[in-house]
Amino acid sequence: MYSNPILPGFNPDPSIVRTPDGYYVVTSSFEYLPALPIYHSMDLESWRLVGHVATREHQVQLANVPTPGGVWAPTLRHRDGVFYLIVSVFLGGRGCVLFTSTDPAGPWSDGTVIASVDGIDPDLAWDDEGTAYVTFARHPDAIQQVRVDLATGEALEAPRPLWPGSGLYAPEGPHLHRRGEWWYLLAAEGGTDRGHAVTVARSRRPEGPFEPAPNNPILTAAGTGSPVQNTGHADLFELPDGGTGMTLLGVRPVGLTQAFSPLGRETFLTTVEWIDGWPHARLPHVAGTGPEQIEYDFANGAGLEDPAWMAVRRMPSEFAHPTPHGLVVRGEGNTLDAPRPSFLAQRQRHLGIECRVVLDVSAGTGGLAVRNAEDNWFGIEAAREGEAIRVTARAVVASFERSWEAEVPDGDLELAILTSPPRRDFSAGAVGGDRIRLLVRSSAPHSSTEEVLLTELDGRHWSFETAKAFTGRAFGVFAIEGEVLVRRLDYCGAD
Asked: Where in the numbering of this chain does the Beta-xylosidase C-terminal Concanavalin A-like domain appear (predicted)?
């Protein structure tokens, strides 16, 4: 039993390696920078974000990549003291890129483009002679493979079909593993929604031919009442006791009908049993994420040291910097509808959160928000108007937007976003999403300390199933115009 999800919040497409220094996992990051978060654990229970592969925009070139493009489905491997990370930057980025480092926390190389790989979800493996094989998905041609000179990125052959999959929709996410005399090819099939599944084939040689497992799919939550759904995109690794573990993605849908997943695709861990030479996996047990409380006191020296901070298609330092009075977030005339907003964010990691921020908007317009994509977000915007502050709560879903307004006295103000999952019974509201409350309170001297509820929302409209952004909720502060001074931000989460 593991404390699943091991990486809560938007952390899809996990790839894992075991090293003498413990376990390392990387996940997809799509349009966010820094990109490709690297997590470390010694015991598979406690995980820590130690760094990112792409901390320089030119490594991935996301500036003009549309949502849901960007950094898709990496593979992390370790060989002869070197870490290798291969990934596709899809829909306009650098394409297939290989990064290397001797320290997974970074810095990583600028990357070598592998032009012959024109698909997604690249995997990296070596045969006994040291030849590198890149296996990838290319719709509609299923799984393909090419041998590559990793030093130059040049192909040693033309890409060739490897395996068409087991017959389910959209074979992708391949990972090639050696076990004894067999090479096992894992794939993700059925799409990344409720039909998602893990399938496998094997061959005596890395280049095939591959025969499918008789028990495919070896893992799926489709048609079950499991609290984890959309299970797939798996990777294998060795457990401390010599057994086999599996990382995979999944979602935690809430409510009576388990229809809406607020946090997007997360990383889970389960175990694998080998029977007659084939892997058999069980659905991951869910223990829930432990409570977390973080306080960023920007007015007393806190800055951007936490590696969890990220921004959309650029680094946070481009528009945010610490000062003696707090963290300044500089607006550039862009709202959260824009491709490159001034939005300093972190992944929402719990189903129930209380996020509060104290702001000074005397020199700018901005606030607190939660984002899935340019057309899927909600938040609270504040702007000074004469001797008062106009506060506007906004909810955006595709082409629909609604707003609610209030006025508070001039001075510092506290904005808050609270979420809570619905009950799993037959009560009113149980068939919807989580409940989202947007609140404001003035922090100005001699003002009322009463909190004002701006609106309450049904979170089904900001879930993975409706947003379709491939990411998940990210919370944080933003600026539209001028400079917003953030004095503190508190995050309290529990499942």
From this structure: 306-481
